[in-house]
């Protein structure tokens, strides 16, 4: 058994609460980085690797990673961009996708961002917004807030807001409409420029990558007459190329290929239409490509 007690542990910063906290912990567990967070503790030691988890506010993770307090961190790409921290982007985690949008009241006569010159914009993303507006030659007055941005037009302190939109229900509930999209973001794994154990960091990235890919792909297996194989391979080209095996009946063969999970239903219908049978979709729990 390896004794890690005298080694410096690689520190990963994780969101301490909310939906992202649960999702990141789940992702790490699936990647074999298991830990149990003692109640209210800010640290948790990883069972099988020389890694320590540190539970932090999601919006502090970029700056704490840049300062070296943590070696790696899970946070939103929006928060990384807003912080301006110099970090290495290691992996998109395929979760938490959202867009940052410039919004006005439903009944507002404003039609374009340039009409907001000199007006008041409430946001928690002043840096991203200022840069985006400057690229369009617009200067505005900023009301910088850390939350509840969606009510600021109603409160009379802003003419427009810049906020994250996921499902759009917050906008609808506050009678707001999107004027323009500023950016699209998702949850990411970032790394300090001088990570203390680069080889271990790479192992962690590869493990997480295996889970992220596994979550978005399925394995499709089916039988197809040899005459239809070329057409079938066009529908399921696989990651590199599909695996084709012989069947007892020489007129048929079996194909195995990975497909995007979101496309699977459509692909199955197209395969069926060209004569494929015994089509089976299987979930993948982990993979290395
Ligand atoms: C975010 C964001 C919006 C809302 C958008 O807030 O600031 O208010 O989600 O989501 P929707 O389009 O699905 O309605 P969050 O819940 O993260 O809390 P916060 O306002 O405290 O940041």
Describe this structure in words.
The two termini are 30 Å apart. This protein is an alpha/beta fold. The N terminus is likely disordered. Helices cover 26% and strands 31% of the residues. A six-stranded mixed beta sheet has the order 2-3-1-4-11-5. Strands 8-7-9-6-10 form a five-stranded mixed beta sheet. The chain has three domains: 104 residues, Periplasmic binding protein-like II (D-Maltodextrin-Binding Protein, domain 2, 3-Layer(aba) Sandwich), CATH 3.40.190.10; 87 residues, D-Maltodextrin-Binding Protein, domain 2 (3-Layer(aba) Sandwich), CATH 3.40.190; 67 residues, Alpha-Beta Plaits (2-Layer Sandwich). The radius of gyration is 24 Å and the shape is flat. β2 and β3 form a beta hairpin. It has eight helices and 15 strands.
Number of helices: 8
CATH architecture of the largest domain: 3-Layer(aba) Sandwich
Which band does the percent of strand residues land in? 25-35%
Q: Mean pLDDT across all residues, rounded? A: 95
Q: What fraction, in percent, of the residue positions are helical?
A: 25-40%
Strand order of the largest sheet: 2-3-1-4-11-5
CATH class of the largest domain: Alpha Beta
Number of strands: 15
Order of SSEs, N→C? EHEEHEHEEEHEEHEEHEHEEHE
Class from secondary-structure proportions: alpha/beta
Categorize the overall geometry: flat
Distinct small-molecule ligands in the complex: 1-O-pyrophosphono-5-O-phosphono-alpha-D-ribofuranose
Low-confidence stretches: 1-6
Q: Report Rg.
A: 24 Å
The span between the termini is 30 Å
CATH structural fold name of the largest domain:
D-Maltodextrin-Binding Protein, domain 2
**What name goes with the CATH superfamily of the largest domain?**
Periplasmic binding protein-like II
Number of domains: 3
Largest sheet: 6 strands, mixed
